[in-house]
Specification:
7% of the residues lie in helices and 57% in strands.
């Protein structure tokens, strides 16, 4: 099993939004190009995983529900370095498995979030997120 080191984890508040944002920097173990992370998201929360990569590398991400007290309506987006929210991959449109060539060097964000009734009724969804960069 491939393991990851999550270097930073914190809660950040938004002035205009009542949701919490969780953030983790993901580093692969030496010799590995991927890892599996897991967590939970509730209601309007979202979880950002930060990964450094180079232009031309391929990112793979696959999101699976592990448990839920709702419908399990969870997605992820991939945001390029220095994004103001614009995604180069939108899971709610394109599905919960992505394989994309990265357009530039920098830190990419994989944002895991809920939609629909699960978000609106403050449900909790547990997930496993398989990540790799080659």
């Amino acid at each position: 099993m491939i393991r990851t080191t999550i270097l930073a984890l914190g809660l950040l508040g938004f002035a205009s939004v009542a949701s919490a944002q969780l953030v983790a920097d993901v580093k692969f173990e030496p010799g590995n190009f991927g890892t599996m992370v897991n967590g939970t998201v509730t209601g309007n929360e979202y979880f950002d995983y930060k990964l450094g990569a180079k232009a031309g590398q391929e990112m793979f991400a696959d999101l699976k529900v592990s448990d839920t007290n709702g419908y399990g309506v969870i997605y992820f987006n991939i945001l390029p370095p220095d994004s103001d929210g614009f995604a180069i991959y939108n899971g709610s449109i394109d599905g919960n498995t992505a394989r994309i060539e990265l357009p530039e060097d920098g830190d990419y964000t994989i944002r895991v979030y809920l939609m629909g009734n699960d978000r609106d009724t403050d449900k909790t969804v547990g997930y496993n997120l398989d990540l790799s960069i080659q």
